[in-house]
Every structure is written in structure tokens, then in C-alpha cells.
Amino acid sequence: MSNWTTICKETDLTPDTGLCALLDGEQVAVFYSKKTGELYAVSNFDPIGEANVLSRGIIGSIGEAVVVASPLYKQHFDLKTGACLEEPEHTLKVYPVRLEAGEVQLQPA
Question: Does the global pTM surpass 0.70?
Fold first, then answer.
């Protein structure tokens, strides 16, 4: 697939802090983990709190999972799989994300 969309420059990212981008009308939370050196992209919509807030969450790790804690009710979502650790019936969309020539790019989920 070649439908990558540039959302920002690598220099726009702050390690361990979320950034919200609009992709095809959907809000996407993008994170760069200083610990893992990886980019992650998930839906910005918290399905439990029912608000677009996950880009404002705090990232960390629980066991081997790199997670974001929702700023509303503090549930943890795995940034690789989108799974909610406390309430597995809730999941987030996970988006392909890459760094290409200094630009952060997303693909639709």
C-alpha cells in the first residue's frame, strides 16, 4: 500500500508525549516512546470515557506492554494492540505509523 499520509515532522514530536492528528476524518493519537524508540498510533477516542482524549494520556509500561493511560478514568491501553488491560472488551484502532525522511506518516487502520 502506498497511501501513507504525512502528519508532522519528526522534530514536532516530544518523546513520551502524545500528538493528535486528523486522518480521513478520524482523530489519531501518535506517540514516540523514548524507552523503546518506537512510534505508536491509536485512535484518540477513549471508548470508556467516550471522548477524544488519549493523546493527552501518559505513556509508560506495564510488564512488557507499552501503554497509554487515559486521562479520564486511567484505564491502560496497549499501544501495539489497542487492547484495554483492565477492561478487555474495549479496544482501540491501531494505525500503521512510520518515519520516512524525517516525516511521521500514517495509514488508515
Answer: yes
Domain ranges of the chain: 9-99
* CB neighbour list of residue 53: distance below 8 Å, 6 or more residues apart: 44, 46, 70, 71, 72
What tens-digit pLDDT sequence spans the chain (109 residues)? Answer: 579 999 999 999 999 999 999 999 999 999 999 999 999 999 999 999 999 999 999 999 999 999 999 999 999 999 999 999 999 999 999 999 999 999 999 999 8
- The topology (CATH level 3) of 9-99 is Rieske Iron-sulfur Protein (2.102.10)
H/E/C letters for each residue in 11-79? HHCCCCCCEEEEECCEEEEEEECCCCCCEEEEECEECCCCEECHHHCEEEEECCEEEEECCCCCCEEEC
